[in-house]
Design a protein that fits this description.
It comes from Mastigocoleus testarum BC008. The protein has about 130 residues and is of the alpha/beta class. It has one domain: Glutaredoxin, CATH 3.40.30. It has 5 helices and 5 strands, in the order βαβαβαββαα. It has a 5-stranded mixed beta sheet with strand order 1-3-2-4-5.
């Protein structure tokens, strides 16, 4: 089961997390959100301990939805040390998600290299 995070627990569970957090903004009415859930669970299992996976109901957490300027659901954010390092939105197919998860996995696996000079590489990915 994926941890559900709300506006009340977001700071503690996401922004103050010791490891990177993949935040899945979703809604109960979102069909694509339900379709990608098994892929996210598989991803979490493979990288348990390296990346934390949480979900946020965008409808019930309007302040977070506004703060992160959600345009579509699902939207995935990789947040590390309180900073959005990666954003995936407007993807249309399973392959888009798998590609994005691979980039996220690689960025976390090479974290020590990525922090040379305290600068993370730009991992922004937006599918058209």
């Amino acid at each position: 089961m994926v941890l559900s995070v709300s506006e009340q627990t977001f700071t503690q569970e996401v922004l103050e997390s010791a490891i990177p957090v993949l935040v899945n903004f979703e809604a109960p009415w979102c069909g694509l959100c339900r379709i990608i859930q098994p892929l996210l669970l598989q991803f979490r299992t493979q990288y348990n301990g390296q990346i934390k996976l949480v979900r946020v109901n965008a409808d019930e957490n309007f302040k977070l939805s506004n703060a992160y300027k959600l345009k579509s659901l699902p939207t995935l954010l990789l947040i590390e040390n309180g900073i959005v390092r990666y954003r995936l939105e407007s993807f249309r197919a399973r392959e888009d998600l798998l590609l994005a998860l691979e980039v996220i996995k690689d960025s976390c696996a090479h974290k020590s290299q990525a922090y040379v000079g305290n600068k993370m590489p730009d991992l922004e990915y937006r599918s058209a």
